[in-house]
Every structure is written in C-alpha cells, then in structure tokens.
Amino acid sequence: MSTWQVALVREQGVTFGVVSVRDSVIDSPSQRDDLIRWWTMKLGCPAVLIGAQRHRTYGRQDIVRFLRNVHPSQLPWRKMNVA
C-alpha cells in the first residue's frame, strides 16, 4: 500500500484533484500521463500533478493556470492510502 498527498478542490463549479508527486515524475511523459489517467479514474474528476519540491504542475491547462495563483499550502491536502 502506498500513501499519497491529494487535495480535492472545488472552484468555479469545477471539482478537481491535485496529486503531489516526486519532481522527476513531472519530467517523465509516460509516468505523468499514466498517473493523470489513473488518478482521474480513482477520484472521478480531473486530476493534475504537482511536484513535491519545486511545485511545477502538469495536467489540464485551465486547472494548471488556476494553480499558478495558489500556494500549495493553501490546498486542502489529505493523505490517501492506495492499494
């Protein structure tokens, strides 16, 4: 089982998930795309990734643009255990 840091956000009528990942995942097209698909299915809403250290984001462009104006500490983070 692995533990992930995930924030579920509802903004302007759109619910989406933000998943914290190692920064190297953002640089790996296959890893990041697989994770986006998996988390979108798991959460039942669009998901974007954010690098744990450098806070670079990847995912749907409208959500990424929104997150540029939000400090990661402002997101409602919670731990999710995934088998």
Mean pLDDT: 96
Q: How is the quaternary structure best described? A: single chain
Beta content comes to 35-45%
Count of domains: 1
- How can the largest sheet be summarized? 5 strands, mixed
Structure description:
- The structure is a single chain.
- The chain is an alpha+beta fold and 83 residues long.
- The protein has one domain.
- It has helices spanning 23-26, 29-43, 61-67; strands at residues 2-11, 14-21, 47-51, 57-58, 77-82.
- A five-stranded mixed beta sheet has the order 4-3-2-1-5, sandwiched between helices.
- The longest helix is centred in the middle third of the chain and has 15 residues, at 29-43.
- The chain is globular.
Q: TL;DR?
A:
The chain has helices at 23-26, 29-43, 61-67; strands spanning 2-11, 14-21, 47-51, 57-58, 77-82. With 83 residues, it is an alpha+beta fold.
SSE arrangement:
Elements: E1 2-11, E2 14-21, H1 23-26, H2 29-43, E3 47-51, E4 57-58, H3 61-67, E5 77-82
